[in-house]
Amino acid sequence: MSSSGKPQLTFRPLETGDREAISLVHYRACLIAYRFMNWSYSLGEVEAWYSQKFAEWTWTLAAFDAGVMAGFIALRDRHVDQLYVDPSHQRCGIGAALLNQALKGTAGPVTLHVFEDNAPARAFYERHAFQGRDRWMNTEEGAIDLLYVREG
Q1: How far separated are the first and last CA of the chain, in Å rounded?
Q2: Ramachandran category for residue 52: left, alpha or beta (phi over 0 → left; psi -120 to 50 → alpha)
Q3: pLDDT, tens digit, for every residue of 67-120?
Q4: Which pTM value belongs to this model?
Q5: Sign of the dihedral defined by the CA atoms of residues 1, 94, 64, 25, in that order
C-alpha cells in the first residue's frame, strides 16, 4: 500500500503459476468469512482443489498491490465462480474493482453462489445489483447456499 494507505493496484489475468497465491488468498479469506460453518480445509487441500479449476474458467483477473496478490475473480461463462480478497486488503475497493471489470465484459445475466450466513458478502453483492433467486442446503459444506442473479 502507498503511504496514503490506499493500495497501488495492478491487474492481469490469472496464470496457472498463480495457484499458490490464489490458494493463500482463498484460504485466508475463508478462515474469516466462513467461521459460521467452521471452515477447516488446509492450505494444501485448497491448492489441490484449485489445480483443477483453471480449465473451467473462461475469464479471470487478479489484483496486485506492490506485487503481492490482493484478490482475484474467476468466471465460468456468466457465473462468478470465485471472488476473494485477502483480509489484509479488504474494504479498500479491490473486490468492487474486480467485480466491475468482470461485469463490464459480460453481457446478459450474471450468477453466483453465496452462503446465506455470509452477511458481508451478501451485502457486497446486493450493492452491485445482485438479487437472491434460490436457496438450498449445500450438504457438502453443511450450510444454506443462495443463488444470486444480476440482470444484464
Answers
A1: 34
A2: alpha
A3: 999 999 999 999 999 999 999 999 999 999 999 999 998 889 999 999 999 999
A4: 0.93
A5: positive
Could you report the per-residue pLDDT of 113-126, keeping only the tens digit for each? 999 999 999 999 99
With vertex at residue 94, the alpha carbon angle to CA 3 and CA 40, rounded to the nearest 5 degrees, is 110
75 in Cβ contact with 118 (< 8 Å): no
Angle at 19 between CA 129 and CA 23, to 5 degrees: 65
pLDDT value, residue 152: 77
58 close to 75: Cβ distance less than 8 angstroms: yes
In the predicted structure, residue 10 carries a pLDDT above the cut 70:
yes
DSSP string, the chain: --TTS---EEEE---GGGHHHHHHHHHHHHHHHTGGGT----HHHHHHHHTTTGGG-SEEEEEEETTEEEEEEEEETTEEEEEEE-GGGTTSSHHHHHHHHHHHT--S-EEEEEETT-HHHHHHHHHTT-EEEEEEEETTTTEEEEEEEE--
Buried residues in 80-118 as b, exposed as e (16+ CB within 10 A): bbbbbbbeebbebebbebbbeebbeebeeebbbebbbeb
